[in-house]
What does this fold into?
Amino acid sequence: MLKNSINASELFWEPNFMSECQSEMLKHPFWQEKDGNILPLKNEDVATYFANFLPALGFFKIPGKQDNGFVSVQIKGRFVRRIDQNDIREFIVYLMNQHPLGNVVLDQMTLQHQKFFGSNIQTSLRIKSDLKTLRDTRTKAYRFFKNCVV
It folds into this structure.
């Protein structure tokens, strides 16, 4: 049976996108290496994680109708998915497991869990202000599907 739709969340886990993310991860590492070993993570590394690493993987917050006025999202081209801290953690864990030294970095991130994966991660995402949210107008109406893109 042919599928008439694509599960939107599957788009963010497809091999091509994950390969792009791995390339971006290597262009924007937040950890330091010396002699093939990962150095202990410092506060500056956490700042780089939020300023460069997460945006390179498409993680942002955009103005929206949430409690704090923003919605956490992951952007892939023209596709945007709403995310929470668990989505970010799972994506990062999966991505880091693909890197030869990724588990060493993950171990250090886990030791500093609140800094890298805690509830404040969503408030620390960079704001993507150039993304226009589609809203109904008097002459246009948009219909979104929660689980698919048609």
Observations:
- Confidence is low (pLDDT under 50) at residues 1-5.
